[in-house]
Write a structure and sequence with these properties.
This protein has helices at 9-21, 86-91, 128-145, 160-168, 185-189, 198-206, 211-219, 245-249, 264-278; strands at residues 28-31, 40-48, 54-62, 68-73, 93-98, 149-158, 174-177, 233-238, 256-259. It is built from nine helices and nine strands. Strand 4, helix 2 and strand 5 (93-98) form a beta-alpha-beta unit. The longest helix has 18 residues, at 128-145.
Length: 291
Amino acid sequence: DEMNKPQDFDQYWKKVEDELASIQPAPERTELQLRSAPEAKVYGLKLTSLDHYRIFAYFCVPSGKGPFPVIYRLPNYGSVVHIPPFEERCKYISVALCHRGQRLSDQPFAAKYPGLLTSGIDSQLNYIYRSIVADCLRVMDYLVSCDDVDSQKISLVGGDLALFTAALRDSASVLFYTPSLFYKALHKATATQNYPLEEFNDYLRSFPESIDQISQTLAYFEPMNFASRVKSEVMLMEESEGDANDLAVSFARDIERSGSKHSSYKDGVVLAEWLSKKLQTGETLVPMHWR
């Protein structure tokens, strides 16, 4: 909880940002002709992130005259990241990052699932998610530098990585956030045997003496410690209504909240309607076959 916020929390993340800033992004954008369509071009974007690691993202630009609003989808937990939905590509610059370890960003490091969640967790400086957050920020910085991006209309969509990105970069105006891996992680892990949280339990069964160090590392990734830094408009998509009250309170201002319907269709409609309202893009982007 907020009481466990490390005293050097801000310095920890400032150091990550400074290290990242010292590395040239060296962007390369290559059109993926097989994926492109008359409505939108799809590019493979490569950038250099922390430790000079090359990361990949899908970067899709609608046909027509920009600048365009942006939907930047932060990756979920899993090896494969899908190309952004066609309807989004037609209207928004839509971006999907493959962070280090995920397919297309897996040279020289291929993540193990399960396993990634505890990789390097016994040290807050070596924890893999420190670098993964930097990967997310690198794409954000690239977005802001693009001429065809409407920098007043950048939205972030995703789990905790979306929250962290919004907290550490104030260039996003909109955040659609579904708490995922790190919200009360160890507390929630004790109540489940489901992966990915079960990875914490597996690790602690093997290294029970490391509980204090793991708690310390995870405190730097606790969403409640980031929330008050977020400047953008927020929609919090909760597991069920009222499920994340203390997290909602930690934003220290009014945010919008919605309980998940546990249907990718119904939750997708909430997302599409909310984004089109906030980014003022006119009609909602719900695919024809969903109506």
